[in-house]
Amino acid sequence: MNHEAVLMVRIYLAESQHLLKPLLKLLLVDLKVRGVTVLRGIEGYGPSGQHRGSSLLDLSLDLPLVVEFFDRPERVEAAIARIRDFVPPDHIVSWPATIASEDPAC
């Protein structure tokens, strides 16, 4: 089994920012990163301390969103440089990781 070094990226958004669709287009069409997962939070707060949440009785339209992806370090660094154009830098977190892949010789 081979191991490949990658960078993981997590981007924190709020639905009310309306940044999800342009961000996904950038990641898919322009940057062609390996894959993206979007998670919709049920509750959270940011630096402003404004609480965002939902209950079974109401569905908020301003819930937290987490966009996560990984790729080779050079591709991720290029992606972060572009993402910073419209997402505040303190909403982008990255860390090194490894992925396991099948040995092509087997």
UniProtKB/TrEMBL annotation:
SUPFAM superfamilies with a match to the protein in the record: GlnB-like
Entries under InterPro entries matching the protein: N-reg_PII-like_a/b, N-reg_PII/ATP_PRibTrfase_C, UPF0166
Pfam families listed in its UniProt record: DUF190
Coiled-coil regions listed in the entry: none
PANTHER family with a match to the protein in the record: UPF0166 PROTEIN TM_0021
The family this protein is said to belong to: Belongs to the UPF0166 family.
Protein name: DUF190 domain-containing protein
Organism listed in the record: Thiocapsa imhoffii
